[in-house]
Structure formats: C-alpha cells, structure tokens
Design a protein that fits this description.
Shape: rod-shaped
Largest sheet: 6 strands, antiparallel
Radius of gyration: 47 Å
CATH architecture of the domain at 108-191: Beta Barrel
CATH topology of the domain at 108-191: Elongation Factor Tu (Ef-tu), domain 3
Strand order of the largest sheet: 8-9-11-6-13-12
Oligomer: single chain
Number of helices: 4
CATH class of the domain at 108-191: Mainly Beta
Number of strands: 21
Length: 395
C-alpha cells in the first residue's frame, strides 16, 4: 500500500512585513525627538522682568541715650564738659569822629559824679546804686565805691534808660533814694562832667572803642575758646577718632575792660564758654536709625540706597556729666521702595502667563512706576513655567 502526499495552501504563518517594524521605529523616534524638543524648548525659554519702583520718602523723629556704661536700649559713648577762658589785649586804631560809634546796646548817657558824704561814718555804695534827679530822671553807678566819712569820691554813672533826654550838665545834684531818708541830705551826688551819649563834637582823629572792634575781638576769642574746648574734651573723653561728636555751648560770658565809645589806646577782651561734648560711634547710631526707619515701612518695602545716603541730624536734649549720660534727639530722612522680596512680586504668581498680562498686573501695583519684560527666544509670548527661569530685577 503506498502513501500519498497532499499539499495545502495553509501551512506555517509568514513572518511580519519589515514595513511595519519600520513604521514603529519611525514613530518612536519622532515621539522621542518631540519629547526632547519640548524639553529643550522648555529649558531654553527664559524671562527677564525689569521693575522700576517709585521712591517713597520716610521720616523719623526719635531719641536715643548715650552712656559710658550702656544699659539695654542705650548706645555706648562719652559725655564730658568743661569751662574755657580766652582773653587778649587789642590795640585801638585812631578813627575820625565822622565814623559812627555804634554801641552794642542802645546808647545811654554816661558821665562822672562826685559822691559827697557829710556823715560821720563811711558809706559803701554798690554798683547799680540809684541816683535820682529832681525831675525824676534815674541814673545808676556803674561801679561800687566806698565814700569816706566827711569826704568825697568820684565814680562813673550812667542813665537807667537810653535816650538823649537823659543828658545832664555839670553841677546837677542827685539824691540817693536807696539810703535812709534822713541820710539823703547828708550823702548825695553831684555831676562833675557832662552826661552825654558819647558823641564826638570835633572832626579830628580819636582813639575810641567801637562796637565793631569789640564784636570782632569777642568773635575771635569765642572761636579760639571753642577750638580749645574741642581738643581738650576729646583728650579727656578718650574717644576713638572715628566717633561722631556734638559740642554744645551751655553758657558764655563776654567782657571788656573798656566800654564802647570810651577813649583808649587798647582794650582787653575776654570770653568764657562752658562746653558739653557727647561722643558716640556713628555706625551704631546709623544702625539704630535704620532699624527705627524699617519699623515705619509698609509691608513689602525696604530702605533704598545705603545708610550713608540717609539724612540724619542730631540735637542734644540734655546731658548729665556726673552720670555720663546724654539724650540725643534724632531727625532722619530716607527713601523707601517696594522690595524684590515683596509678596506682590512673587514669581509663582506669573509663571506661564503672557508677557503683556504680567506687565498689566504688576504695573497696577502700588509703588511700581514701570514694568518691562524680555523673553528668550524672542518669538515666545509666555513666561516660562518654571520660576527659576524668571529673573526679576528691581531698579
């Protein structure tokens, strides 16, 4: 019996077409390229936002205490004081009578009187003792004098008030109303020179002290005394050279041995000043001022510029040299601006937004003057979706 082989159109399955594999590979490559492209595009997009902010003035009026041994809230410093005297003799140049004598005070009439004492006891009279004319005009001694018993003494006197009406001739009797009434007939005054306001009658040269000459001398001595005070007090305080110093003249006295209008070849002028000095580290006070100014700023604002740009002035309110404590009044002016760290300028609020919308939103904020946005590449119109790709510059 033989075997018969029969063929069939079926059989084993044929392998897949190479075209299918090619399509799959191409698709995968395209997707991969697209993903890489998107990633590269996303990472390449950057934004720079320039924000021009407005400057807002901020002022401060406060006070701080300076102390040698500072307690909490005080600043370390030094407080010292002293008295300083300067005197100098000045020559007087001859001046024609046409040059006016301008007294430092309204002119009073002056002259000399003879005090007559017919009493059995000597009579002391102090400066400013009153002398009364019969018509009620009042004069005063310019110096004290002691009149011996049964004798006389001459002394300068001046009218109690300025004015030409207080002029007197010689030989006018003046009573002393400050004495006991029964003594007034025994002790009295008589004018021995004319009482006038020191006007020069002739036109010849004359040496007399003018108000201008006295003022110049006293101004010079005042400056010299103040310079000496600054040098001496700085040494006494032992303050570093970079510390700030405030000097206050608490009292001053100006004297001259010659009156304005008085004839003399020279005069001696003297000035005495009492000076209090306060020394303190400038940087510590600047930090104190900066902290107080920051406390006054609205939320999201900061001081603009550096500390040196603050306009700060000091004034000594009081000082206790015994305790070495002083209180300074401080006035400060500065500029503030919206800070880059303000919550209103957070990058999270603008990621992915169109640039024109960012400009619109931020331009509407208080304290902002102008907003500009630069995008890279230039053809994109939206900000990056990652905030680290956004750079905010506050000007």
């Amino acid at each position: 019996m033989g075997i018969k082989l029969v063929s069939s159109s079926g059989g084993f399955p044929q392998p897949a077409s190479s075209r299918l594999f090619r399509n799959i590979a191409v698709t995968f490559v395209l997707i991969t390229v697209a993903v890489i492209g998107v990633a590269l595009w996303t990472s390449s997009v950057r934004a720079k936002i320039m924000v021009k902010v407005k400057r807002v003035p901020v002022n401060l009026d406060t006070a701080v205490e300076i102390a040698s041994v500072p307690a909490t809230g005080q600043i370390k410093g030094r407080v010292v004081s002293g008295s300083f005297v300067e005197s100098k003799e000045y020559p007087i140049e001859a001046t024609t009578a046409t040059a006016p004598i301008v007294p430092a005070e309204p002119a009073k009439t002056t002259g000399r009187v003879r005090i007559v004492n017919k009493n059995s006891k000597e009579q002391p009279l102090v400066a400013t003792t009153r002398l009364l004319a019969s018509d009620g005009r009042l004069y005063r001694l310019t110096k004290g004098v002691t009149v011996p018993a049964g004798g006389t003494a001459e002394v300068e006197a001046a009218s109690d008030k300025p004015g030409k009406e207080f002029e007197l001739q010689t030989g006018v009797k003046l009573t002393i109303p400050g004495l006991w009434e029964q003594l007034q007939s025994l002790i009295y005054a008589e004018t021995v020179t004319v009482f006038s306001m020191g006007e020069q009658k002739d036109g010849g040269p004359r040496k007399f002290l003018t108000a201008d000459a006295l003022a110049r001398a006293q101004t010079e001595l005042y400056g010299t005394a103040l310079d000496k005070a600054k040098q001496s007090l700085a040494v006494e305080a032992g303050a570093p050279s970079d510390w700030e110093a405030i000097y206050v003249v608490t009292a001053s006295n100006k004297q001259s041995n010659t009156a304005v209008g008085q004839d003399a070849d020279k005069f001696l002028a003297q000035v005495k000043v009492n000076v209090t000095a306060v020394y303190f580290p400038k940087e510590d006070v600047a930090a104190f001022v900066r902290d107080r100014l920051k406390d006054k700023l609205p939320e999201g604002y900061s001081l603009s510029g550096q500390d040196g740009q603050l306009d700060v002035s000091f004034r000594l309110e009081n000082a206790d040299t015994a305790k070495s404590v002083a209180r300074l009044a401080i006035s400060a002016e500065g500029q503030s601006q919206l800070s880059k760290n303000s919550t209103a300028l957070k990058k999270d609020l603008i990621v992915g937004l169109p640039s024109d919308e960012v400009i619109r939103k931020w331009s509407a904020l208080d304290g902002i003057d102008q907003v500009d946005v630069e995008l890279q590449p230039r053809w994109v119109h939206r900000l990056p979706s990652m905030k680290d790709k956004i750079d905010v510059i506050v000007e």
